[in-house]
Amino acid sequence: MDEDRFESEFVIEQNDYPINTGEIFENEFNHWMAPEDSNLTTYSRSIAEDLIQIIKRLLVEYSHPSQSHSKDEEYNKYLQNKKNALYSGPQASHPNPFHLDYFVLGLSKPREEYEKPVFHFNGEYHYMYELRQPLLIPYSALKRNQFEMLFAFSLRQCNLSEWDSFFEYHLEKSFNSELKPFIKLVVLIKRKFESTLFNKGQIEAISEWIGFNEKVSNQKKIKTVLTVDQLAYLFKALRDTNIIIETNNSVIISWLSEAFESKIQSQISERSLNNKFYTPTHEASEFWQDQFQKLLDYTKGKKEK
Questions:
Q1: Domain contains 125
Q2: What's the Cα-to-Cα distance from 25 to each of 15, 54, 242, rounded to whole Å?
Q3: Full residue range of the structural domain in which residue 260 is found
Q4: Which of 143, 144, 158, 166 is nearest to 198 (CA)?
Q5: What digits encode the pLDDT tens for the residues 161-219?
Q6: The pTM is what?
Q7: Number of domain units in the chain
């Protein structure tokens, strides 16, 4: 089993918003501990249990256990007792559904002998997982219902002032900057969870985002063969040489995102444009040196006619 196969897909930078199951669990635990101190809505225990079940299955499939069966019989007995404690006494009926922050599998043979992850509890080989363990899961690894649930919880926990950045991140990373299917997902999540997970302010913010981006998705755009880094480099050059005199770079970047589409992407990510605008690539520089020479030759040819 290759639990590390997704590590290369994530290069986490400041202000990134990946799906992190450990962070989701921790934040919901804190909310249920003191809901009166939170501005988040409180939902049913059944929704909490559905979320926990999704996190458990993802941990088994894509992470290593924190403690594993060994040759030490006393240690194996300890793991078995940890598993038995999950289903007895006050633990099982605690008012906070996130109170238990671990679970223990009981497999019929050593975990390494399975070709695929298994989710059994009654075997003699015990493996413990921590629900607070950070686990970053890409969209491609999730079933649709898993992504909807985790996306909704991540969104609800995100500071409202960062929602635009949150949406921009997942539009680019999870939906390859394809705006229309992403809008459909957000509409579905709003309908599915607005009465349970989101407060009034959050519902209004989702509605505003949907309304604005539906208009953007229906706008006629200029098609270009330029890549994102090439487009960003061109307009940064125009800005730096004062051919464009707009002083707010964010206005330029936002307009580019709304006005252009490439052969690959109908919606060019504002997030990507922003990154390439401020950190131009060497390849884009070389591309435009060549293109500017071609334009110079073109104007010379026109002048000679």
A1: no
A2: 20, 11, 50
A3: 222-304
A4: 158
A5: 999 889 989 998 888 888 889 999 999 999 999 999 999 999 999 999 999 989 877 77
A6: 0.75
A7: 1
